[in-house]
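Need residues for this backbone.
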């Protein structure tokens, strides 16, 4: 009897915990590293995987770096081979927390939150803080926001002849629509 009660309790706790998970496999990330008077340097990824634990506010995200698509194919090739070195560093990850997050506080009206965590890009971990808008509509949680990142902070080497054509600070934007699991 004790075993049955234990198994039933464990199964119920697992279901409750799982009921607090929201995720997407098609989150959107983009970055802009353009400077005036030179060709636009920007890329987008629409295959980001993000998971939110609504009970704790913990959020994690992973992208295949080679999924970033550029308007200019040659720029994409240079990004993957020379800057991001995707053969050596194929993924970029983020692990963090939405501060003061409570699922019960969410409505269809977006509310501002701070997301604090660690971004790993090019094999380097760096702290990231971002302001995001979060809303709950039709059972889905939407999260949008942005932050700035410096390639130098992630040990990305930019050739001297290119330093004037690529911004020192890259604008990173994200947009996730997460569904309950």
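Answer:
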């Amino acid at each position: 009897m004790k075993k049955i009660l234990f198994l039933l309790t464990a199964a119920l706790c697992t279901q409750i915990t799982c009921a607090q998970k929201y995720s997407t496999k098609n989150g959107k990330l983009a970055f802009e590293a353009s400077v005036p008077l030179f060709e636009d340097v920007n890329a987008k990824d629409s295959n980001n995987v993000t998971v939110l634990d609504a009970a704790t506010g913990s959020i994690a995200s992973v992208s295949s770096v080679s999924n970033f698509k550029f308007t200019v194919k040659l720029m994409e090739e240079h990004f993957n081979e020379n800057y991001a070195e995707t053969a050596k560093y194929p993924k970029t990850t983020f692990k963090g927390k939405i501060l003061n997050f409570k699922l019960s506080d969410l409505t269809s009206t977006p509310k501002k939150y701070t997301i604090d965590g660690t971004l790993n890009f090019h094999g380097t971990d760096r702290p990231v803080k971002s302001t995001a808008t979060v809303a709950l509509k039709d059972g889905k949680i939407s999260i949008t926001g942005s932050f700035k990142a410096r390639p130098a902070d992630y040990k990305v080497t930019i050739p001297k002849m290119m330093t004037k054509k690529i911004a020192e600070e890259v604008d990173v934007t994200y947009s996730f629509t997460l569904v309950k699991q």
